[in-house]
Amino acid sequence: MIDQQTKTHSPEKHAPVMSAEAFAQWGVGQIAYIKPVVVDGQPVAAIFSADGQQIGVTENRDVARAAAIQHSLEPVSVH
């Protein structure tokens, strides 16, 4: 037998849905994603803004984190 509480909720009880445009701008100017990449055969650390735009490349993750912090961004590692 199905319990009444297991029925799905109506849409108005769910959290609001974020548009793709709003999601793309979420964290811009606040978050910097640090990701290891290879440039000219050398491993480096790339810095990306929250919308995915590459904003810098440094020799390693530590320097990338310091650069993000220096520019008032919260660094987050991406693997």
Architecture overview:
By secondary structure, the chain is of the alpha+beta class. The protein has a domain of 51 residues. The protein is 20% helix and 33% strand. It contains two helices and four strands. A four-stranded mixed β-sheet has the order 3-2-1-4, with helices on one face. The longest helix has 10 residues. The mean pLDDT is 81.
Give the helix/strand layout.
Blueprint: H1 20-25, E1 31-39, E2 42-49, E3 54-58, H2 61-70, E4 74-77
Parallel strand pairs: 1-4
Antiparallel strand pairs: 1-2, 2-3
- Extract low-pLDDT stretches: none
Helix-residue proportion: 10-25%
Q: What is the alpha-carbon Rg in Å?
A: 19 Å
Topology as a string of helices (H) and strands (E): HEEEHE
Within the largest sheet, what's the order of strands?
A: 3-2-1-4
Determine the mean pLDDT: 81
Taken as a percent bin, the fraction of beta residues is 25-35%
Quick one: overall form?
A: elongated
Number of alpha- plus pi-helical segments: 2
How many beta strands in the DSSP annotation?
A: 4
Structural class: alpha+beta
N-to-C span: 46 Å
Report the biggest beta sheet as strand number plus sense, adding barrel if it closes: 4 strands, mixed
Short summary:
The chain is of the alpha+beta class and 79 residues long.
Key traits:
single chain; 79 residues; alpha+beta; 4-stranded mixed sheet; 2 helices; 20% helix; 33% strand
